[in-house]
Amino acid sequence: MAVLLLAIVVIEGMLLLSWWRPYWVWGVPMFRRRIAAPYPALKAFPFHRLEREVAAEKWPDMVFRPLDKRSHAFRESFGLHFGWRYPPLMRGQIEVDLRRRQIQVIGRGSWLLIVAVVTAIPALKVAPGGVLVAAVVLVASYLVQRHRFLAVVEAIRRVLDQPAAA
Hints:
Layout: H1 2-18, H2 21-25, E1 29-36, H3 39-43, H4 50-53, E2 62-68, E3 71-76, E4 90-97, E5 102-109, H5 111-126, H6 128-161
Antiparallel strand pairs: 1-5, 2-3, 3-4, 4-5
Helix pairs in contact: 5-6
């Protein structure tokens, strides 16, 4: 089991670093926000401004990369950071939907989270206290990451409100 977990961590880490498009657009959505916007603002949405707009606070910086013309991926930086850390449970995607006139921010669950949930079920019989501690850590991590994803949503709203300040 430990080898499987280690393999998943390594594979998912490589996929996060490679910014491979199929990895970012497929998965179980754990976070979703829709932001309505006029067509002209969507057509020329300045993705390049988001990295500056998202406040780092005490957490690692958010890093954004294009997947295609209307979609960007984002995640926490793996760089050197002297501050708080948390196990990231989601990877983010920003989609501009011209037809529906909206921007969607989607957080998809990591594979490690799915494996942790599946292994926690049989572990409940053996070590219920350990499963409870792991569940508390995962919930706390989700709440922190949800806060970070909401900061991305607010940054998008600020960018939409100030289109001329490029």
